[in-house]
């Protein structure tokens, strides 16, 4: 199917042709410990389609040069491709303006940038930053750092036993002192999908700005930053079938324009003298030094690929896998799902009360099944549910029901090895 045909199929609500999709991903066609690889660790990072690999290869081989600074032909070509990638990202999240797209290393750097630059300049002693109990460390620690620096106070909205954000508590905690609300769109530890639009309304009613951690949502759902109404949105290229070391911060233009630089160096200045320097307008102000040129171009190729299939089709496919997995896992004796929120997507976390998740992960690995076992960089979630860790299966557009069957068969094996 050509890209155009794929778009038409997606627009018509056609099911994703998973066998065709799988052919685009060379990494999926290998054996692990003598078994076909079943890759269910997509929330940690996703594999790359051939078109992304070829784009990276081609740019390093033939079109490679530094961007922005050169007057020569190759540099012009590299600059054009880099800026074209920025435009692809803009369209992907329906941002109003290309200049609102800042290339960063990933979600972690994007949130650190907002916390240090925006948070560092607006927060005063006694101001509050409101996060939730289900955040990834990347959306906790940068806020702790800036609170320490400014005297602001970190507040945490609780989650209930099923992993839903407790909306009434969030509303109570969001008040006149709240300057920043930072929430995950989709929890990487629980699979909870947060009502971002509603949270933005509550926050904006109190004059607070909203930062959304989109690391898990951007690869799985259509994201429209204007419809969400948020002020900042962050995501990573490597979870979106693109390269590592590249990610995106979107921010409203007026906010970016008022923000001080995060890092100093080449490209981010207007003028430098020993007496002082002035700053380039955004996004250059926030892209000090030689950027990850080929990373951005590779991310652009990944976005083209995903849009060829359609984010709606991907969301439907993953939702069907999630429902299938949830039902099948319920049949495994002694297995308990951690995270049964009303709105979920993309992944499922689970535990056996008498088997450590690391043992679960290791045994599954011997069956060729890759899952993640650990705290998923969300230690407070583990504390909330009194578990040291969980095992997590997370899905991508290329996963199949047969792969979930392999996971479930592996889990039955785990169960029988530990008795019962
Ligand atoms: N937030 C969430 C919800 C995540 O799942 C992750 C990655 N596990 C991050 C932030 C951090 O992303 P990165 O490591 O790509 O910066």
Features:
four-stranded antiparallel beta sheet; Aspartate Aminotransferase, domain 1; 420 residues; disordered N terminus; single chain; seven-stranded mixed beta sheet; binds 4'-deoxy-4'-aminopyridoxal-5'-phosphate
Indicate the CATH architecture of the largest domain: 3-Layer(aba) Sandwich
| Gyration radius from CA atoms, angstroms | 22 Å
- Structural category is alpha/beta
- Rounded mean pLDDT score: 95
At the fold tier of CATH, the topology name of the largest domain is Aspartate Aminotransferase, domain 2
- What summary fits the major beta sheet? 7 strands, mixed
* Tally of alpha and pi helices: 15
Head-to-tail CA distance between termini:
48 Å
Q: How would you sum up this structure, described in words?
A:
With 420 residues, this protein is α/β, with parallel strands linked by helices. It has two domains: 3-47 and 310-415, Aspartate Aminotransferase, domain 1 (Alpha-Beta Complex), CATH 3.90.1150; 56-307, Aspartate Aminotransferase, domain 2, CATH 3.40.640.10. Helix content is 40%, strand content 17%. The chain contains 15 helices and 17 strands. It has helices spanning 3-11, 18-23, 50-61, 73-92, 107-122, 141-150, 167-173, 196-205, 225-228, 253-258, 293-309, 311-330, 357-366, 379-384, 401-417; strands at 31-32, 35-36, 38-39, 101-104, 128-132, 153-157, 178-184, 209-213, 232-236, 247-251, 269-273, 276-279, 335-338, 347-352, 369-370, 372-374, 390-394. The strands form five sheets. Strands 4-10-9-8-7-5-6 form a seven-stranded mixed sheet, with helices on both faces. Strands 13-14-17-16 form a four-stranded antiparallel sheet, covered by helices on one side. A hairpin with a 2-residue loop joins strand 1 and strand 2. It binds 4'-deoxy-4'-aminopyridoxal-5'-phosphate (PMP).
């Amino acid at each position: 199917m050509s890209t155009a045909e794929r778009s038409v199929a997606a627009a018509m609500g056609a099911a994703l042709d998973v066998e065709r999709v799988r052919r685009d991903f060379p990494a999926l066609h290998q054996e692990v410990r003598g078994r076909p690889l079943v890759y269910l660790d997509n929330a940690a990072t996703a594999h790359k389609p051939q078109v992304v690999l070829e784009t990276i290869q081609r740019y390093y081989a033939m079109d490679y040069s530094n961007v922005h600074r050169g007057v020569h032909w190759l540099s012009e070509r590299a600059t054009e491709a880099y800026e074209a990638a920025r435009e692809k990202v803009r369209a992907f999240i329906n941002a109003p303006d290309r200049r609102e797209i800042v290339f960063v290393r990933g979600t972690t750097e994007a949130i650190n940038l907002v916390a240090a630059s925006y948070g560092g300049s607006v927060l005063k002693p006694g101001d509050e930053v409101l996060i939730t109990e289900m955040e990834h460390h990347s959306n906790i620690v940068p806020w702790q750092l800036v609170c320490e620096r400014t005297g602001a106070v970190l507040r945490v909205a609780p989650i209930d036993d099923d992993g839903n954000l407790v909306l009434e508590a969030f509303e109570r905690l969001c008040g006149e002192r709240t300057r920043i609300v930072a929430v995950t769109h989709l929890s990487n530890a629980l699979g909870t999908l947060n009502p971002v639009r509603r949270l933005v309304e509550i926050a904006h009613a109190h004059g607070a700005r909203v930062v959304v951690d989109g690391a898990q949502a951007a690869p799985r759902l259509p994201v429209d930053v204007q419809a969400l109404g948020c002020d900042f949105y962050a995501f990573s290229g490597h979870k979106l079938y693109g390269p590592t070391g590249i990610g995106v911060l979107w921010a409203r233009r007026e906010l970016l324009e008022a923000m001080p630089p995060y890092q100093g160096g080449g490209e981010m200045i207007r003028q430098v003298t020993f007496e002082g320097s002035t700053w380039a307008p955004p996004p250059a102000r926030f892209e000090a030094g030689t950027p990850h040129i080929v990373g951005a171009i590779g991310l652009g190729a990944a976005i083209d690929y995903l849009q060829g299939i359609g984010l709606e089709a991907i969301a439907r496919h993953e939702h069907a896998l999630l429902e299938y997995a949830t039902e099948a896992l319920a049949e495994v004796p002694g297995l308990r799902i951690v995270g049964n929120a009303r709105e979920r997507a993309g992944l499922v976390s689970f535990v056996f009360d008498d088997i450590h998740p690391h043992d679960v992960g290791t045994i599954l690995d011997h069956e060729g099944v890759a899952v993640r076992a650990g705290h998923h960089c969300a230690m407070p979630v583990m504390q909330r549910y009194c578990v040291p860790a969980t095992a997590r299966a997370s899905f991508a557009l290329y996963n199949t029901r047969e792969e979930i069957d392999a996971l479930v068969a592996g889990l039955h094996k785990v169960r029988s090895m530990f008795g019962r």
